[in-house]
Specification:
alpha/beta, 6-stranded mixed β-sheet
């Protein structure tokens, strides 16, 4: 079973507890782009996070690259594909960086179905449910500015302000 962090969200490495953080796309975007309304908060969070790993998955990587090169989102600061990859590579060069592989299929599917088999999930929340299920299956702490995502994820998420 894939789980980089164990069931409680931490592992023991030389006697120290290590956390595994899983920022959503907006946190990555805010940290990379000075024009984002949450840039100061995201930058402060990244700077203060020294107790673990911070990572992308394929979905957050794709969303991050897409938004950096999106003309409506980035306006005058739109990045070329090469510029977007450069922004990704800057994160990847950080010692805290990791790339989370896909979680155990059965555990992920169970969490994903449990989160989405409710009348309360809206059509816009499918990606949020995916990220939440990914965090649950991987024992990761989802990091977000999104109150709706925090509400869906519950204790699996950390809300930034």
């Amino acid at each position: 079973m894939w789980n980089p962090s164990g069931r409680d969200g931490s592992v023991w490495t030389t006697g120290l507890s290590m956390k595994f953080y899983f920022p959503d796309i907006n946190v990555w975007l805010a940290a990379a782009w000075r024009g984002h309304q949450h840039h100061p908060s995201a930058s402060a969070w990244f700077a203060s996070t020294s107790d673990g790993k911070i990572g992308f998955c394929h979905v957050t990587q794709l969303g991050f690259l897409r938004l950096l090169s999106h003309p409506v989102i980035m306006r005058d600061e739109i990045m070329t594909p090469a510029g977007a990859w450069n922004a990704f590579d800057q994160f990847a060069s950080d010692d805290r960086f990791t790339f989370y592989p896909e979680p155990d299929h059965e555990e992920f599917q169970n969490a994903f179905r449990r989160l989405t088999m409710t009348k309360h999930i809206a059509h816009r929340q499918w990606p949020d449910a995916y990220l939440t299920a990914f965090a649950i299956a991987g024992g990761l702490t989802l990091v977000t500015f999104d109150r709706g995502l925090k509400s869906l994820a519950g204790r699996e998420a950390q809300l930034l302000r």
